[in-house]
Inverse folding.
């Protein structure tokens, strides 16, 4: 699990760098990190982006002491690095983000987002709309936009409106539904190290989509 979390975060950081023109030094990036494994992947990305010279801020969906296991481990690393971490949305935005990474919920969604998580989603969407298309600001969702059901494609309120989504291992059916497209944005899938034997044991005929690259753009969608 720790290795897959590391892989997910590494790919998220790589895609973030590509979407910022190939360099993140001096860019202001906000990472929204939930308490689950999705949040851990987001914090791995935050660590790597900070190492690459980005100006990072990590916003948590709960107080730090409520984080557990691998996600808590990633949080502790960021704190030791001195990356700014705070719970909930800031009362006042200090500056516009060049990029927002949504790592709040992912495929573990159970109904509409609530509480601090919902507030973070609303703040991210508001920041993106305020930023205006001309500013080039974007949101990348990890695995799925928070608020979107990856099985059914149902859009709960609130839901992240992502510029791009980096889903993991294989594309989720719900991300390909027509109604989900405006929330998913450009869809990518990343290799997190799941062996082909796992899919075979589950009776899945999964294609070898990572033969040439670890991050693949999904071009075909379900009609």
């Amino acid at each position: 699990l720790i290795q897959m979390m590391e892989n997910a975060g590494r790919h998220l950081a790589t895609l973030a760098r590509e979407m910022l023109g190939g360099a993140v030094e001096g860019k202001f990036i906000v990472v929204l990190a939930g308490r689950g494994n999705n949040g851990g992947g987001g914090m791995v990305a935050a660590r790597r982006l900070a190492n690459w010279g980005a100006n990072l801020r990590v916003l948590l969906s709960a107080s730090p002491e409520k984080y557990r296991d691998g996600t808590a481990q990633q949080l502790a690393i960021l704190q030791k690095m001195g990356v700014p971490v705070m719970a909930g949305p800031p009362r006042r935005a200090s500056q516009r983000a060049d990029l927002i990474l949504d790592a709040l919920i992912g495929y573990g969604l159970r109904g509409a987002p609530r509480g601090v998580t919902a507030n973070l989603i609303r703040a991210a969407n508001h920041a993106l709309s305020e930023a205006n298309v001309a500013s080039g600001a974007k949101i990348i969702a990890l695995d799925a936009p928070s608020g979107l059901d990856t099985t059914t494609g149902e859009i709960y309120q609130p839901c992240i409106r992502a510029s791009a989504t980096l889903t993991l291992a294989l594309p989720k059916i719900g991300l390909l539904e027509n109604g989900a497209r405006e929330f998913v944005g450009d869809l990518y899938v990343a290799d997190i190290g799941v062996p082909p034997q796992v899919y075979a044991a589950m009776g899945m005929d999964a294609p070898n989509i990572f033969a040439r690259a670890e991050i693949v753009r999904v071009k075909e969608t379900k009609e």
